[in-house]
Specification:
mainly alpha, elongated, 85% helix, 221 residues, 9 helices
Length: 221
């Protein structure tokens, strides 16, 4: 736990020195959602029907934008090589880095989402469900994204390749999360969607740190 907290604190401090790496995904998230009422329709009924999909697609893309910085800097500086050759668990160190990524990207998205939900005329029940789905699923986005980031860490300008690898894996999360918000606004039970999101989160926690560690070792060799 001490090693985990040290790595987590280190990554947060490094990110705070380069605020653009934190602010750019959040600005993209806010601006892209704000443009939809101008591009589609300012009518409340229309925006309510598509609000869940808009917010979730924007959040996925915002997380994807920030994944390039997850391992690249440490790979270029040789820090990842030192981590892999140390006697400490590489998967634990990767889990700390993923946690820092979620705290810097996922948590701000969760906190901003109620304001953007109000912008798109979501009711209180839908906003609460939106925050709950984001709380369950944004860690999965970071965990699954770490696998893709570890596979392309040695490739420069790998943004497009990373998107091709990760976006298909995000589709189940998008389907269940947006469906939960839409059905909550209609007063329909959404327990099944939440169970699926929780199952994806548990599976991601169990598997992705070890898969990422294996991929990083292959790239370092």
């Amino acid at each position: 736990m001490r090693l985990y907290l040290q790595t987590l604190t280190r990554d947060i401090r490094i990110a705070m020195r380069n605020l653009s790496s934190i602010m750019n995904p959040l600005l993209f998230f806010v601006i892209s959602i704000s443009l939809f009422p101008l591009a589609i329709s300012p009518e409340a009924k229309v925006l309510m029907q598509i609000a869940a999909g808009i917010i979730w697609v924007a959040s996925m893309l915002a997380v994807l934008l920030s994944l390039n910085t997850l391992f690249h800097n440490d790979f270029d500086n040789g820090v990842l090589e030192q981590m892999s050759t140390s006697h400490h668990s590489l998967s634990l160190l990767i889990m700390a880095k993923i946690s820092a990524h979620w705290l810097l990207t996922g948590v701000p998205i969760i906190l901003i989402s109620p304001l953007l939900g109000m912008l798109l005329f979501l009711d209180n029940a839908s906003i609460k469900m939106l925050m709950l789905t984001l709380l369950l699923a944004t860690p999965s986005l970071s965990l699954i994204g770490a696998v893709g980031a570890s596979l392309v860490v040695s490739i420069k300008n790998s943004g497009i390749l990373l998107s091709l690898l990760i976006l298909p894996l995000y589709i189940p999360i998008l389907i269940f999360a947006s469906s939960a918000v839409s059905q909550a606004s209609a007063g329909i039970q959404v327990d099944s969607q939440l169970y699926f999101l929780a199952a994806i989160l548990v599976m991601s926690l169990m598997l992705t740190p070890f898969i990422s560690a294996a991929a990083l070792k292959i790239n370092l060799e």
